[in-house]
Structures are given as structure tokens and as C-alpha cells.
Amino acid sequence: MPPPDAPAARGSRRDGRARWAVPAATSAVTAAVTAGAVFGTAAALDGRDGGPHRAPSAAGRPAATAPAATAPAAPGTLFTKVASVCPLVDPATARRLAPDPEIEMTPAESGAEAACEWSSQARSHPGQLRSVRVSVGVYTAADGVAGAQAARGAYEVESETAGDAGGGPTVQDGTTFRPLSVRRLPGLGDKAFASAEQQTGRYGGTTSVTVVVLLRNAVVKVAFQGSDNPRGAPSTTTVPIDPAPFRPVVEQAAREAVTALTRCVDCRI
Asked: What segment(s) does the record annotate as region Disordered (predicted)?
């Protein structure tokens, strides 16, 4: 894992955890939508239906196989589950963001979203820290709240949080969060936006590029983080990187995930 003193990121302002750690579902989003909005149950990573299953981390190899049955979904079709997030993104695209990665799979259990994270640590690429996490939250109807409505609320919370940051830098616990851009992505899912941000603190800084997509009753999120260590490991000082080369790749990963999810027969009603 990355150095424990890596600078906090934007998500840390909500849950206090280091951004480089693999996060669970964003509790603030869930609470803000409705107490009755819950993520859909994920199928086992081996493709079988049923209860939650744990899967070990995989290092430098594909995490799972893509769903066998694919066909375009009719408009309005709702999703019920996501067996595995890793196959939703082309491995070549993931490697452009995190070269020679370790892969961490997170099945959707205990109310969490399903996710896949590719992390490239300084041990394989000295002086570089790169990570991209793709998550899918599927919302089902509960307590009179429709799944699509709950997903829309979760998306709006993400959008408002990114928009609020557009007012200028903020400081929390000694870390400065500096928004770089927030823009809509028409034509991607039902709604989508992309944002970029840099964080700097006592031990250096990092850059975040994020795309969030609303797709019917699901929210797809692609979150990239990167920093450079000019002095090389194990130095504790990192610097933010230029987000420009990574923005189109993060958007490509989001488009791949949305396309694959839309065509996944086993993921929908």
C-alpha cells in the first residue's frame, strides 16, 4: 500500500480515511439519498447468483472474466446486480492509468457498492503512485422509494459536492483541496460529470480525476489518483501531477464501464 503519510484526499473530508485505501460505499451519499435506499445485492465473483462471497486480491492478472451473455438493454431497463466490476473496463485502459497494477476486487456485500481497483505502487514504478477505482452502486426499491429515484439522489449528491468545490480552495486538517475543473459529459449514461482536483499538505500532494455517471438505477464512478515522488521511494514528499493526460483516459474507462453494464444481460431485470 502507499506511504501512510500520503496526503488526504477529497473523500477524506467525509469519512476521514486516506484516499489510497480501498473505500467502502460512501455512507454520506447513502444517508443523503434516503434511509431506505440500498445497493442491490451483488452476485458471486464467479458468476453465480446468491449471497455475498469474498474474493482474494489478485496481483498483476485479470480479476475475472466478462459476462458471457451480452445484448443492448431496452430503455428504462433496471439493473439488479453486478457480478464483478473488473471486467467492465478494458485491462489496457486500466493499465494506462495504473501501469503494472495490483488488482483489488470488492464484491457488493453489507450494503457496499461493488468495485475494482488497479493500483501501481512505487515498488514497480519508482517515484510514481497511480490508482484507479471503478465502482458500481445498484439501487433497488425500498420503503416506497424507487431504485432509479434513489440512484438519481445519490448522483446529485456527488454532483453537488463537486460543484461546491468550484468556489475555490478549502482547507481541512492541514490539507488544501484545490478544485481544477468540473464539467458535464453529455451523451454518457443518463447524466454524467467529470471533475479534477489537487490536494497538498504537510507531506506533499496528489491529483484526483473523477467521472460519475447516472445510469437508470445505478451510479458508476471512476476515480483516478496520482502523484510523483521526485526523490524516489521511500521519500515521504509527493507532488501533484498534471491531470490533462489522464482526463480522457478516465472518461474512456467510464464509457467502457457504462457500455459493458448496458449490454450485460445477467445484470438487469
From this structure: 1-21, 47-69
Summarize pLDDT for 211-241 with one digit per residue, the tens: 999 999 999 999 999 998 876 655 567 889 9
Q: Which of 186, 188, 189 is nearest to 218 (CA)?
A: 189
C-alpha grid cell, residue 7: 496526503
Report helix, strand and coil shares of the chain as percent, to nearest 5.
Answer: 25, 30, 45
Greatest extent of the chain over all pairs of C-alpha atoms, in Å: 56
Q: What is this structure's pTM?
A: 0.72
Contact 219, 151 (CB under 8 A): yes
What grid cell was written down for 137? 452502486
Q: What angle do CA 126, 222, 72 make, to 5 degrees?
A: 135
For 34, the grid coordinates are 434516503
pLDDT score, position 123: 58
Q: For residue range 153-165, what is the model confidence (pLDDT) as tens digits?
A: 999 999 988 876 5
Q: Where are the alpha helices (DSSP H) in 34-103?
A: 91-97
Q: What is the pLDDT of residues 42-72, one digit of tens each?
A: 333 233 333 222 233 333 334 444 443 555 5
Buried b vs exposed e over 155-173: b needs ≥16 C-beta within 10 Å? bbbbbebbeebeeeeeeee
Cell triple for 67: 459476462
Segment holding 237, helix H or strand E: none
Helix (H) or strand (E) run with residue 158 in it: helix 147-164
What Cα–Cα distance (Å) separates residue 157 from each residue in 28, 78, 253, 266? 9, 21, 22, 28
Q: How many CB atoms lie within 10 A of CB 60?
A: 10
Residue listed under C-alpha cell 457488493 = 108
| Domain range 70-267, CATH class | alpha beta
What is the tens place of the pLDDT at every residue in 81-113? 888 899 999 999 999 999 989 999 988 764 568
